[in-house]
């Protein structure tokens, strides 16, 4: 076991389908389980108690930070790990967590980040890092009614330290979003938050992303543009890269290819090592069906392969944009242009990663 004792803190409601698995994957690394239930109508509290959790009940007041802060207040150990019930730990070690806790002790204002792997509605897997491990210390508090952020003494976390922990998240698959009406809930809370905040660009980013997932691209464009304009005048925080990426995909869906080019040029000027931006632009070139854009397609996807996968510590990134997905799109280009030897080569490279679409196209070509 890790020398540093860690309390797992979770807030839940109607998570009977997930909670046993979530707690089960965390148990080898933690020493206490704090569950705050905000009004379950299923067996979530009873299941949590049967797994050794201390269960607290708190009425829901449309404020995630309020409940998060209540949950960490109940913890009795010196370090906190925050998880959601629809997540599981897929990789961690007691040694790395012990080392992290020592680093947190020595660096007040620091916090540990975990890598979140999101299974999306399209079947892609995106990865990003999120602050989830920190000392039990009143100076650490969550702020924001939704998409709450951990703060230190009211300001930003001063240093993010990679914990080596990987977490799989299942809450944004189509079935879970539909089941819990997450779109409507999130938008309602975000718009309330927007009206009560002076620093609005992060909330505008989250509203834009929510509208994008809902396929309301005009609304998404509006809020993402507001976010980008504000951040260009300010500190250009880490979510700006994702805002530009999502805005680019909005333009593709809306077939605004001139806007897409402007967005892409700005984005790669600011984030030249963010592979997802090049991949997004390559998708836009394909969708534009413009003759003069056609010759750019292989250049862009070769650039993706040259860069490789983007760092999930720096960016929110989709797995494959710097490898099998880029090889697949290159292979399609070569197949369509009659360069079959090159097409087979790139389908083979793509298929080596287990990418079934590449394997199917390769089988078709060879046959």
Fill in the keyword field for this structure.
alpha/beta, 2 domains, Serine Threonine Protein Phosphatase 5, Tetratricopeptide repeat, 51% helix, 16 helices, Spore Coat Polysaccharide Biosynthesis Protein SpsA, Chain A, 19% strand, two-stranded antiparallel sheet, globular, 367 residues
Could you give a short description of this structure?
The chain folds into two domains: 6-173, Alpha-Beta Complex (Spore Coat Polysaccharide Biosynthesis Protein SpsA, Chain A); 181-288, Tetratricopeptide repeat domain (Serine Threonine Protein Phosphatase 5, Tetratricopeptide repeat, Alpha Horseshoe), CATH 1.25.40. A hairpin with a 5-residue loop joins β6 and β7.
What do these coordinates show?
This protein is of the alpha/beta class. It folds into 2 domains: 6-173, Spore Coat Polysaccharide Biosynthesis Protein SpsA, Chain A, CATH 3.90.550.10; 181-288, Tetratricopeptide repeat domain (Serine Threonine Protein Phosphatase 5, Tetratricopeptide repeat, Alpha Horseshoe). The chain contains 16 helices and 11 strands. The protein has helices at residues 19-26, 44-50, 64-74, 94-106, 174-180, 182-196, 201-213, 217-233, 240-254, 257-270, 275-288, 291-294, 296-307, 324-336, 340-351, 356-366; strands at residues 6-12, 32-37, 54-57, 79-82, 87-91, 110-119, 125-135, 140-143, 149-152, 159-169, 317-318. Helix 6 runs antiparallel to helix 7 (201-213), helix 7 (201-213) packs antiparallel against helix 8 (217-233) and helix 14 (324-336) packs antiparallel against helix 15 (340-351). It is globular, with a radius of gyration of 22 Å. 41% of the residues are buried. The mean pLDDT is 93.
